[in-house]
Specification:
This protein is an alpha/beta fold. The protein has 2 domains: about 55 residues, Vcp-like ATPase, Chain A, domain 2 (Roll); about 150 residues, Rossmann fold. The strands form 3 sheets. It has a 5-stranded parallel beta sheet. It has a 4-stranded antiparallel beta sheet with strand order 2-1-6-5, with no helix packed on it. Strands 3-4 form a two-stranded antiparallel ribbon. The protein is elongated. The two termini are about 30 Å apart.
Length: about 230
């Protein structure tokens, strides 16, 4: 059993379901409307423990889910939300050991999802054109994983101008104009590889498809939309 540790992000859930994000630090306290929580009462204890404030309020302590980690932080770039991340991983057939090139690191949400899917035997190479976005993604990934893993390469660069990477199993595009990256994707992919673009609007989809049809070598084109309806 992995115990809660100093430096770890946890979520405290009160009796009406409110969720409070807390970064554990030895000797610190967290103040809530219902009282104070001693961090030392959580460090070294198992996930799922019930802690009590000095005012008698009881809270459940758990680690945040991946979806909470993706959506719960301050962000500069538009994120890819959890409902889309799952569909992207399945739609692009991201598998353990895959070599994946990502263009448009953004918040790092898809980067993290790709790392989880390819596992330690895979590789993720992620390009971002904006230095501030790349730095923010670096911080987010480090905060989530503790460090940048050895199978992740974060690169400052413009895929529209081409890339040096080759023999990639998948190319994932989250760009304003993904059709401009089709040439680079073709050069980077191995035979039988898959290029996948996340497009927020229909006009992007149409232009991307038109470009794929114009460039020899791409086939089995597919488009799908992801909808999510919450129930309470």
């Amino acid at each position: 059993m992995r115990l809660l540790a100093a430096g770890e992000l946890i979520v405290l859930i009160d009796k009406i379901g409110r969720r409070h994000r807390v970064r554990l630090k030895a000797g610190e306290r967290h103040s809530l409307h219902s009282g104070l929580i001693e961090h030392d009462a959580l460090i070294g204890r198992p996930e799922g423990i019930i802690v009590t404030t000095q005012m008698g309020a009881r809270l459940l302590a758990v680690r945040p889910t991946f979806a909470e980690q993706v959506t719960g932080r301050v962000r500069q770039a538009q994120p890819i939300y959890p409902k889309d991340l799952g569909a992207i991983l399945v739609g692009a057939d991201i598998h353990p050991g895959a070599r994946v090139l990502e263009a448009g690191t953004g918040t790092g949400a898809l980067t993290l999802a790709l790392l989880r899917a390819v596992g330690p035997g895979g590789l993720v190479v992620s390009y971002e054109q904006r230095e501030d976005f790349l730095e923010a993604a670096n911080r987010a990934i480090t905060e989530t994983l503790g460090a940048i893993p050895s199978n992740l390469e974060l690169k400052l660069g413009d895929i529209y101008a081409g890339v040096e990477d080759t023999d990639m199993d998948r190319v994932m595009l989250d760009l304003p104009e993904p059709w401009q990256a089709v040439g680079a994707a073709k050069m980077a992919l191995r035979p039988g590889g898959i290029v996948f673009a996340h497009c927020p609007n229909v006009s992007q989809v149409q232009r991307f498809l038109d470009c794929l049809r114009e460039v020899r070598g791409f086939g089995m084109l597919e488009v799908f939309e992801v909808l999510q309806r919450g129930w309470t």
